[in-house]
TrEMBL record:
Domain TGF-beta family profile: 258-371
Organism of provenance: Melospiza melodia (Song sparrow)
Principal subcellular localisation of the protein: secreted
Compartmental location: Secreted
Keyword Cell membrane (UniProt): no
CDD domains: TGF_beta_ADMP
Matching Pfam families: TGF_beta, TGFb_propeptide
MF GO annotations: cytokine activity; growth factor activity
Lineage of the species this protein comes from: Eukaryota, Metazoa, Chordata, Craniata, Vertebrata
Key words of the record: Disulfide bond, Glycoprotein, Growth factor, Secreted, Signal
The name this protein goes by in its record: BMP2 protein
Ranges where the record places region Disordered: 197-216, 234-265
Name of the gene encoding the protein in the UniProt record: Bmp2
Length: 371
C-alpha cells in the first residue's frame, strides 16, 4: 500500500464518498504543488524528449538516486535552468527565449554552452602558418539588424580555443542575461565570432560550433542559468544524504496486525518510512528524476525520563519533567518530530519543455527527536 504525503492529508476524512475523495485529492495535490513552488503541474513534453546530458550529469553530481542532496556545495543558488537554442540559425547568431524565468529569481551565473566541431583539415593546414588556436568572442547583440556597427554589440567573453579537438566550450555571459530578464525586449541574442590569434578575420573560419539546425539535439547550443528564487526552509539543521544502507533512528515497516497502532504509541520516538511516488501522484510525465523518494516521518512516544537516544532539547526535557510530576495542568509530554531535515532535488521539464534542476529544502526527515 502506497504511503504518500497525500495519504496524510486525506487520513482525517472518515468514510468519504467518491466526490469527496476527488475534492480532497485535488486539494492535496494543490498543496503539494505549493511545496514545490508551482501553481499548476507543467504539461509533459508533446513527444519523447531526452534531457541535455549536462543537466543529467549535474543532477547525479548533486543528488543520489532518490534525489536527496549528497553534495550541497555544487549548486550556486537553488535552481539551474537550461534553454536550447530554438531559432535554428545557420550563422553564429543565437537567441534564447527566457520567458519561464520568474521575476523573483536572482540571476547568479549565466553560461553559454557551445559544442565545438572537429575542424576541417584544409582550414588548419592552408596558408603560410598552420593554425593551432583561434580567438572566439561572444557578443551581446544591441542592434539586431546592425550588430557590426559601432554600438551594435557588446563584448561578453573572449579566449583562445584549440583547433585540435572537439567538445564543449563554456562562456560566461551573466551581464547579458541580467539585462534580458530586466527588460525582455532588449533580448536581441548573441553573436559569436572566430578570428586569428592576432584578431584578424578568418574566412571561412577554421572553427565551427554546432548550430540548432543540421546537428543532433545533444549538441545544440544551450544557455544554462544558475539562479535563486529566495525560497528557504525552516531553521532546523540541514544536511546532505548521510549515505549507507542504515540510518540511526530508522525502523523497518512493521507487519500489519491488530496491535500495530497501539504498539506504535508505545514504541519510543523513531523515524519510519514514508514513500512519495510521483507516478502514482500523476507527475511522472514531466518529472525526469527521481521517480519518487522516501520522505520519512517521525512516530513514537517520548516517555519520562528522556534518554540521549531520543535527542531531546533542553526545553523538551523540562517539559517532560513538568508533565511527569504533574506540576502544571495542561502540559503534555514532548512530541516526536523531525530534528534534522535533508533537501531533495527535482530534474523536470517546465511548460516550455526546458529542463530545470531545482533544490527544495526540508523535504526529508533526517532524524527524529523529542521536542
Amino acid at each position: 500500500m502506497l504511503r504518500t504525503v497525500l495519504l496524510l492529508l486525506l487520513a482525517h476524512t472518515a468514510s468519504p464518498g467518491p466526490a469527496s475523495v476527488a475534492i480532497r485529492r485535488d486539494e492535496a495535490l494543490k498543496k503539494l504543488l505549493e511545496v514545490f513552488g508551482m501553481e499548476d503541474p507543467p504539461a509533459p513534453p508533446t513527444h519523447s524528449k531526452q534531457p541535455p546530458q549536462y543537466m543529467v550529469d549535474l543532477f547525479n553530481s548533486v543528488a543520489n538516486a532518490d534525489g536527496v542532496t549528497k553534495n550541497p556545495d555544487i549548486l550556486e543558488g537553488n535552481t539551474v535552468r537550461s534553454f536550447l537554442e530554438k531559432t535554428h540559425s545557420e550563422e553564429m547568431r543565437f537567441l534564447f527565449v527566457l520567458s519561464s524565468v520568474a521575476k523573483n529569481e536572482k540571476i547568479l551565473t549565466a553560461e553559454l554552452h557551445l559544442f565545438r566541431l572537429w575542424p576541417r583539415v584544409k582550414d588548419i593546414t592552408d596558408g603560410p602558418k598552420r593554425q593551432h588556436f583561434c580567438q572566439v568572442s561572444v557578443y551581446q547583440v544591441l542592434e539586431k539588424d546592425k550588430p557590426d556597427t559601432p554600438g551594435g554589440k557588446k563584448l561578453l567573453a573572449a579566449r583562445l580555443v584549440s583547433l585540435q579537438t572537439s567538445g564543449w566550450e563554456v562562456f560566461t555571459i551573466t551581464p547579458a542575461v541580467r539585462d534580458w530578464t530586466e527588460d525582455e525586449s532588449s533580448n536581441q541574442g548573441l553573436l559569436v565570432t572566430v578570428q586569428s590569434r592576432e584578431g584578424a578575420p578568418l574566412d571561412p573560419p577554421p572553427l565551427q560550433f554546432a548550430s540548432g539546425r543540421g546537428h543532433h539535439e545533444s549538441k545544440k547550443p544551450m544557455l544554462v542559468l544558475f539562479t535563486d528564487d529566495g525560497r528557504r526552509g525552516a531553521s532546523l539543521p540541514t544536511a546532505g544524504f548521510p549515505g549507507g544502507s542504515h540510518t540511526p533512528g530508522t525502523t523497518p515497516s512493521p507487519g500489519r496486525s491488530r496491535s500495530t497502532r497501539s504498539l506504535g504509541r508505545l514504541r519510543p520516538c523513531q523515524r519510519h518510512p514514508l514513500s512519495v511516488d510521483f507516478e502514482e501522484i500523476g507527475w511522472s510525465g514531466w518529472i525526469i528524476s527521481p521517480r519518487g523518494y522516501n520522505a520519512f516521518h517521525c512516530k513514537g512516544s517520548c516517555p519520562f525520563p528522556l534518554g540521549e537516544n531520543m535527542r531531546p532539547t533542553n526545553h523538551a526535557t523540562v517539559q517532560s519533567i513538568i508533565n511527569a510530576l504533574k506540576l502544571s495542568e495542561g502540559v503534555s509530554s514532548p512530541c516526536c518530530v523531525p530534528d534534522k531535515l535533508f533537501s531533495i532535488n527535482l530534474l523536470y521539464f517546465d511548460d516550455d519543455e526546458n529542463v530545470v534542476l531545482k533544490q527544495y529544502d526540508d523535504m526529508v526527515a533526517g532524524s527524529c527527536g523529542c521536542h
